[in-house]
Amino acid sequence: MIKEKEKNKMSVGEMWTQLWSSLAGLMFIWAMFKQYCPHEMEGHLKKYTQKLVSLFYPNIEVKFHEFTSESFHERSKAYGAIQRYLTTNSTTRAKRLKADMVRDSKSLVLSMDDYEEILDEFKGIKVWWSSKKNISRSRVISFYGDEEKRFYKLKFHRRHREIVFGSYLNHVMEEGKAMEVKSRERKLYTNNRNEQLTGRYQRTMWSSVVFEHPATFDTLAMEEKKKKEIMNDLITFTKSKDYYKKIGKSWKRGYLLFGPPGTGKSTMIVAMANLLEYDVYDLELTAVKDNTELRKLLIDTSNKSIIVIEDIDCSLDLTGQRKKEAKDKEGDGKDPVRKKKKEDQGKSNESSKVTLSGLLNFIDGLWSACGGERIIVFTTNYVEKLDPALIRRGRMDKHIELSYCCFEAFKVLARNYLDLESHDLFETIGKLLEETKISPADVAENLMLKSDDEDAADACLANLIKAIEKAKEEAKVKAEEEEKEKERAKAEEEKKAKAEKEEKEKAEKEEKDKEKEGEQKSDEEVKKKKTAGEEVKENGNHKYCFLIKEKEKNKMSGGEMLTQLWSSLAGLMFVWAMFKQYCPHEVEGHLKKYTQKLVSLIYPYIEVTFHEFTSESFYDRSKAYGAIQRYLTTNSTTRAKRLKADMVRDSKSLVLSMDDYEEILDEFNGIKVWWASNKNIPRSQVISFYGDEEKRFYKLKFHRRHREIVFGSYLNHVMDEGKAIEVKSRKRKLYTNNRNEQWAGRYQRTMWSSVVFDHPATFDTLAMEEEKKKEIMNDLITFTKSKDYYKKIGKSWKRGYLLFGPPGTGKSTMIVAMANLLEYDVYDLELTAVKDNTELRKLLIETSNKSIIVIEDIDCSLDLTGQRKKKEEKDEEGDGKDPVSKKKKEDQEKSNESSKVTLSGLLNFIDGLWSACGGERIIVFTTNYVEKLDPALIRRGRMDKHIELSYCCFEAFKVLARNYLDLESHDLFETIGKLLEETKISPADVAENLMLKSDDEDAADACLANLIKAIEKAKEEAKVKAEEEEKEKERAKAEEEKKAKAEKEEKEKAEKEEKDKEKEGEQKSDEEVKKKKTAGEEVKENGV
């Protein structure tokens, strides 16, 4: 017995050896089975195994894959709906989560992490949801790398089959869709000229940007009664699905908005979209090739949307009606904006073949029933010029006129802008509004608060009264000019009629003279015919492990122990490798799930994962990951022991962050959380186009009792701080637009090229009067702090500045000073490189917030106004004196051949629907000739502040002297001041003369002396130029007099020659009469 026990004790090592040998053999057999077993046999084994398990396993399982076999590039709508539905349960019950800024969502979206399971209850039954993934282990050549196939699994008892399939799944889908609508970011779309890849390999004909314009019906300047009528009409439409079905009509409604410019047509569309929470599709008809492309665009639009065609009468020549009446030509002649729009329309017709029939079918034909719950909106300034077939009831169901500002509309604006319900000046304003036509946009601009003073509201109302009185006076002057124009035209017509009458009388007289002469001749011929006996006649035609420990090895030698140890480890690693390679996904998933459940019983912490790249977009870095990285920078440098550093793109300095597998502590409102930086390295045998990329992620860990604080406010705090740090630490850029999209960053295309913007100009160095500088700076700073104010008044957070004045007066320097004061990026838009309105919108989409969009020399960028053709003589005279302007006009004519940007497109870019694209933007126009700009382009509401930068004055000179020479005063200042009052010289010329050329002590004196000489020279040149201009005028006058005299002499000479010819003709006729008489007498005598 003792010997047998010793023998058994001695055989422990052998037992371990046999165990690992058996396991290794088992795994080898399993590997061979997986590798060489026919698919049919493997399928049968799985089928009968599952049948055997189902005999004692009472649950039913349903899988919902992220991507289906039907569409590998488009995420399953069911998967998305389930993800949104489970968000609430995930945040309250799950212990391991993942988070990301999901596309089209307003905020951070939390969902279950892989292999996590949560419980849901519905009508007294319990169901379990779990999140899983499959990772391919086969050798694959992949373009996108080792993609994980994720899916949700729903588990429930088989006795609940009918409830789950009958109503629970429908409940999940409906709740998921409702949460999507509630949490989604609404979009503003514009059509592309061609299909483009976007998102996860999807092709689309629309480009989009987040739509967050603050305008509502509460902020809309309109009579309350009319507002309620429109709102009731819209709400009734959204609730009328069954009614439209009952009457057999597609669920869509048309609205025609018409009225003068600035009356709120675009704002009305925004208010409609915000009321109904619809997306907006702004259709640019000029970019649509043909009717087929128009239908494709309609197919790509979503339900719950507003399709907008602005300026329908000028988008394409679809009606043919404008060519009928001569009155239209007369109206267009008086309206240069209208005239230019027609010229733009003519160009667009060359590339677009959309017909009136195609557009009508789009509105209410077969294709109008494509989708449902859609609103179609047309806008126009001239409703009378639209074809009746286009706007009849059934197509445009409701016609809404938006006219000039009335007293009711003014009271809405006063309440929104000034928080005033009544004021002593209201009565005066009411009377003026009855007598004067002024748009709500002009009224709103005068009510915009420029400061926080107590008297600011009074000042705004006073300014408004002045503006209305000015508009009244301008209207009166315009009416007088029109009357004079009519009288002049009438006088010209009378003069023309008189000249025609005289010409007619003269012609009649000549005709009579010819008739008399003919009669005389005919009498003679008759006589001849009678005499000779002869007669004559005449006759006239548009993309497991497990671990085993040995307890008794005391009787074994050290060598045997080591041998057994390494043998066991080798066997264990072999078994683990075989397990990872050939273990079915279902078994592996179950092991991970139940291991995590076991751990969660004793582990009190919740973990949230933030991946660098998500399954939705492998090329676009997660915004949440970037914000966290920037937020953790400060903690990393003060607490982490292992860091990594890099010069991050668009950052001013070296950026430090946690190294991989490092963990740091953060505190917020008395609670502690831990952040860790981790990465996953794929070990599968995959040949990837992008290589074996590491999948990095941040992991947030916190105690479960702090769940509400973390999900309620901490994560939002992290996101906001991260974004603020990004703005503060970034390098500011100067951008220019490319002619075509280019690759930039990580697989991204961009339409802008950039360079670091580090110009040193500031308002301190700007040559301008101190008071004017402070006014502009206060206006800019007030704008940056007015986000809530703009939202309150329902206006997009942007402001326009018009900088005008002679060359060299500091317009470009002013833009730099503005950018440096506000720390904004600058987008220098070259209009001549923009193909059309669609490309202009794409450029706007790609601009960032906190930026200044600049169009320099707006009057010469493109011929957008058509106004300069009015006074050709004055322009030719001005251009003859200004060769720079003349050259710019020649370049402009060339650029017009390749660019089809229209005035309507540019106006929409400034203050239409697209002006709300993003926020905190400034738009700046510069020009040397403000009088040549179209009033529609620079009216208040578009260019809110007009800043004149003129020639150098004494205040501006003192700034330059302080900057360039460090002088506050000097004996020569008085002389220079007097000269500057008498002479026009630009700040650029003054600055050049104040530039130090050496380090001598007397350099400043020399500079001032040179400046005096330069001003005196400019004064002399101006005098000589004035004399030459006077001589030129006298010479031109003399030439005109000489020309008039020559014309008079030529006329007199012609008249004299005409008289001489007439006399000569009379003499000839007399002689012929005499000859005929003599011949007749001879004939008579001969006859006798």
From TrEMBL:
Biological process according to GO: response to stress
Bias type Basic and acidic residues, positions: 325-347, 880-897
Cofactor(s) the protein needs: Mg(2+)
Keywords, comma-separated and alphabetical: ATP-binding, Hydrolase, Magnesium, Nucleotide-binding
Gene Ontology MF term list: ATP binding; ATP hydrolysis activity
PROSITE patterns in the cross-refs: AAA (PS00674)
Record region (Disordered): 325-350, 477-534, 869-897, 1022-1088
Residue stretches spanning the membrane: none
Catalytic activity: ATP + H2O = ADP + phosphate + H(+)
Superkingdom: Eukaryota
Family: Belongs to the AAA ATPase family. BCS1 subfamily.
Name of the protein described by the UniProt record: AAA+ ATPase domain-containing protein
Organism: Rhododendron simsii (Sims's rhododendron)
